[in-house]
């Protein structure tokens, strides 16, 4: 495992990066998975009506999605800071090479944020179904663009100096490799698994058997689909990365993550069969995801390590992080990180209380 050989400063920032990235991923999965469900439901309404269970799932997602996007963006600040500490040269270079394309994610997110509020408004509910479907699909398309841009930026940051030079010389605004589509599919489809668990907790006190079946379908589609996407991604990975993942320490991470996903699947299968939202099974699904997501996130860094090592960017990145660590700032980060967590937790609690009071 490459992380075990890192100097103390680098290991600290890597751990902080992974922890904050996992928190961001969980919130992001709710947003992306929720947008997928809302878009699918809105399109389905063009040809028919859905049941009360689907209606309750759509209602809670639609109600919470604006807040979830705000939380996602807030939780995304810390990993962006840490990735700059760890991989400054590669990350900055990819940003600059994509230029306008990269900066476009900001206005796109702003528009998507306002459309989420429009999507839950009574005004839109009075419009024709085709208009509501267009808004839902438009929101999903915007999130897909942002996800594409992040995947593009990440993969470009792993390229060699020669590839960067060619990209700049040709004036390209896009960067496409054999990894782009499978990587994007893995993160998009996998988001449904996280969404199913969070929505299950939100609806656990009022979930009918049909609601359990619908959420189980969403969760199992996310889990099985992510395994298929992971297999596709495996075939697209360079041989050196597959070799690295096959090493003992990394293989343990794969096995542990697989066991977590298996626990998630087993929990939803049992709940689907019984038609009941059992607390112990819901906790099993939650713990399974809490194991699988960090493992997938750690394997993501193995891919980066192999790429940066091959193009001689790894050791300079390690040295640059050690130098930056001498200037401090960790205490300030920790203070504001804890403050943000407390504020977000307070907001979620207040909103939950208002929702319960209104119902």
Automatic annotation (TrEMBL):
Transmembrane segments: 12-44, 64-87, 99-118, 130-150, 184-203, 215-236, 248-269, 281-299, 327-348
Keyword Transmembrane helix listed: yes
Organism domain of life: Bacteria
Assigned keywords, A-Z: Membrane, Transmembrane, Transmembrane helix
Name of the protein: Uncharacterized protein
Organism taxonomic ancestry: Bacteria, Pseudomonadati, Planctomycetota, Planctomycetia, Pirellulales
